[in-house]
């Protein structure tokens, strides 16, 4: 049989467990897979024909399921939102995976890719995709628009290997631009991203498209990759000047391009010519290598060469590959040499002087935060502290951890609620423990801002008063309610033990999250109190005294009447049990007004029943079955026509019936009794008294009401077929 090689490993299983199940199911069939190196799709099945056919169908079904479950879709999500897609402790991504039954793969943290790959059944993948996009849309003002651009221009807008469109996407904040399939003839181009970036990308696309429709020209020139950042300039300042002065568009290679030296210029013939001339002048000046020197105090050398010279590498990347040489370690020389393009050397020298100025202005500040919070402040893999370091351009050093026993006293104080005596600054007169002191270095104003950022990451506890009787509802079934709130607000919520009967719930988390968490908790309390009040209103009870003989009539056939009353008035109606002392008490529970209305409805039925009378009507027992009719149709028709509540055959089987109804209905029933005289009961034409009269209760002509009767010969003559 033919099975695509890509499914072979999945059919076999990681340790051969899946193919073993197939072989156990079809023991008479020998299954052989080709060697992976052969790249063959042929799987050999040998054995009895019928078994081989069954096995083949079974394996084809396995493949069909794999194909169905191997649908894959890539979702572009801006890198900054990946952590929100993952959620705290992976909660968000886990929930989406479980609820959509899909596999979701995110790119590594150090990867530049923004694509999230979803695998599974098509419908499930689409559901997961929509969930992920909804999270991104909620976090940022993400929009998606369509722009109409003639399809004949699409290839030129995309550029060779997508270089042109990638340059627009990168320049416009990383928006996503999607062109329709080549040859489809569709003019619609989709742009997705933050509103401002999308509008910027739209303007650029339409502008370039207009240029392409006029006489657009393209030119290419080459420059060393290390020159590119300098050509572009800080914040794109240099290249923007060239664009503004010439009107041409300049495209630099991206990290995905193989040719890292190629620069493309697009625009009108004149614009391209002018831009090319300016760029060539800049490149030529960069090729003009010069050497210059500067003085740097030896005490600052370590800053530049630390971390394997990371600062110097950054300077080289930013300023055209300029080389900076410091004296050997241990030397007291203050001479530093810079070598590279003249403009690059000057710019690098200026930047180094700015760094030295910062170093000269550096101070060291101590921030005292209890050691138990340090891990929380650092965040997973130190991400939070790295962010503060970058944003405030400071150095942060955490102390060594102290032995647990040494901190017993403070731990006791913390357990006693001394949350505020925990976060202190250097001005605190109390002598802090070494393990609590975090040291920051940098410019004074930056260090102070970083200290505030660190303190903002310290978990804070607030107390919220919530009635004790509501605690179990806030916790929810198996803790589901409180877990949902903790995940939503990124806090920890501590509910006191039931035996304490305390109304205080503690919320612990970052200060920026506490207000929202408190608001959410109080909103939940309001909901529960409203439900509690509603339950109290619905618990109104009243009783009505009704003679038990009327209970079946109030209930109705198969409970139809009482069900209608319950549904109409939204109440619960309870009849007495057999062993109850008060057999005449019916209890109604619900909203007060609705319970009263239900009671009135029952009382109206009782009033009607009490107006009814009972009268015996004598009828020849031989016509009872005829009046009752097949399956009681005849007697029901009479009851409906004359509004009779009941018609009961006397238990002694005597020749009369006993209807119960109002006086007018019984009188009308009398007319029916009179009409029964129309049924003639004739004497049988037998000549001797020894002949036995036939049974007049035959169901052939007088159907019984419920009881089965053995058919006998009809007194009205032989049955004709």
From TrEMBL:
Residues 403-429, 655-721 are annotated as: Disordered. SMART domains: KH (SM00322). Residues 265-292 form a coiled coil. The keyword Cell membrane does not apply. InterPro entries: KH_dom (IPR004087), KH_dom_type_1 (IPR004088), KH_dom_type_1_sf (IPR036612). SUPFAM superfamilies: Eukaryotic type KH-domain (KH-domain type I). Keywords: Coiled coil, Repeat, RNA-binding. GO terms for molecular function: mRNA binding. PANTHER family: SCP160, VIGILIN. This is Vigilin. It comes from Scleropages formosus (Asian bonytongue).
């Amino acid at each position: 049989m033919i099975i695509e090689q890509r499914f072979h490993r999945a059919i076999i299983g990681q340790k051969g467990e899946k193919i073993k199940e197939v072989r156990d199911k079809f023991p008479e069939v020998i299954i052989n897979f080709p060697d992976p190196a052969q790249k063959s799709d042929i799987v050999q099945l040998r054995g009895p024909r019928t078994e081989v056919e069954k096995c083949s169908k079974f394996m084809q079904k396995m493949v069909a399921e794999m194909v169905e479950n191997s649908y894959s879709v890539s979702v572009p999500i801006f890198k900054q939102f990946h952590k929100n897609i993952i959620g705290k402790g992976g909660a968000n991504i886990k929930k989406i995976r479980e609820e959509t039954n899909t596999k979701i793969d995110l790119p590594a943290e150090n990867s530049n890719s923004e694509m999230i790959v979803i695998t599974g059944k098509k419908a499930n993948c689409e559901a997961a995709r929509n969930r992920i996009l909804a999270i991104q849309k909620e976090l940022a003002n993400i929009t998606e628009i369509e722009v109409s651009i003639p399809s004949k221009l699409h290839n030129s807008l995309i550029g060779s290997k997508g270089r042109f469109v990638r340059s627009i996407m990168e320049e416009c904040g990383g928006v996503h631009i999607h062109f329709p399939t080549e040859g489809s003839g569709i003019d619609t181009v989709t742009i997705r991203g933050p509103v401002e970036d999308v509008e910027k990308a739209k303007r650029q696309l339409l502008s370039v498209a207009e240029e392409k429709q006029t006489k657009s020209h393209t030119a290419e020139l080459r420059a060393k990759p290390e020159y590119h950042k300098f050509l572009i300039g800080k914040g794109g300042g240099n290249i923007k000047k060239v664009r503004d002065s010439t009107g041409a568009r300049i495209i630099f290679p991206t990290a995905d391009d193989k040719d890292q030296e190629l620069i493309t210029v697009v625009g009108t013939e004149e614009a391209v010519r002018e831009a090319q001339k300016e760029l060539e002048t800049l490149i030529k000046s960069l090729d003009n290598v010069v050497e210059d020197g500067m003085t740097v105090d030896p005490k600052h050398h370590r800053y530049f060469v630390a971390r394997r010279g990371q600062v110097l590498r950054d300077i080289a990347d930013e300023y055209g590959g300029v080389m900076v040489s410091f004296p050997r370690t241990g030397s007291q020389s203050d001479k530093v040499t810079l070598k590279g393009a003249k403009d690059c050397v000057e710019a690098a020298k200026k930047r180094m002087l700015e760094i030295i100025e910062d170093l000269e202005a550096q101070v060291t500040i101590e921030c005292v935060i209890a050691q138990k919070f340090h891990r929380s402040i650092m965040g997973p893999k130190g991400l939070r502290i790295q962010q503060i370091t970058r944003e405030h351009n400071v150095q942060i050093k955490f102390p060594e951890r102290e032995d647990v026993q040494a901190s017993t006293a403070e731990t006791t104080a913390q357990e006693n609620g001394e949350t505020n005596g925990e976060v202190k600054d250097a001005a605190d007169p109390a002598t802090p423990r070494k393990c609590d002191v975090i040291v920051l270095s940098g410019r004074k104003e930056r260090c102070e801002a970083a200290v505030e950022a660190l303190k903002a990451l310290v978990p804070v506890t607030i107390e919220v008063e919530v009635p004790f009787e509501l605690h179990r509802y806030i916790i929810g079934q198996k803790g589901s309610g409180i877990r949902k709130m903790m995940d939503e607000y990124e806090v920890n919520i501590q509910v006191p033990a039931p035996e304490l009967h305390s109304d205080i719930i503690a919320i612990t988390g970052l200060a920026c999250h506490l207000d929202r968490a408190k608001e959410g908790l109080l909103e939940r309390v309001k909901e529960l109190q409203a439900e509690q009040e509603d339950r109290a209103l619905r618990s109104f009870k009243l009783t009505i005294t009704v003679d038990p003989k009327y209970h079946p009539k109030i209930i109705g056939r198969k409970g139809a009447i009482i069900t209608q009353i319950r549904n109409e008035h939204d109440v619960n109606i309870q009849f007495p049990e057999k062993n109850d002392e008060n057999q005449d008490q019916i209890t109604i529970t619900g909203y007060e007004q609705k319970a009263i209305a239900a009671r009135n409805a029952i009382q109206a039925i009782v009033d009607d029943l009490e107006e009814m009378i009972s009268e015996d009507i004598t009828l020849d027992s031989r016509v009872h079955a005829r009046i009752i009719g097949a399956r009681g149709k005849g007697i029901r028709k009479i009851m409906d026509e004359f509004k009779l509540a009941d018609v009961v055959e006397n238990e002694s089987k005597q020749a009369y019936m006993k209807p119960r109804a109002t006086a007018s209905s019984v009188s009308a029933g009398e007319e029916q009794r009179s009409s029964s005289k129309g049924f003639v009961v004739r004497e049988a034409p037998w000549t001797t008294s020894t002949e036995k009269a036939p049974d007049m209760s035959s169901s052939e002509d007088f159907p019984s009401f419920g009881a089965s009767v053995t058919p006998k010969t009809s007194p009205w003559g032989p049955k004709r077929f």
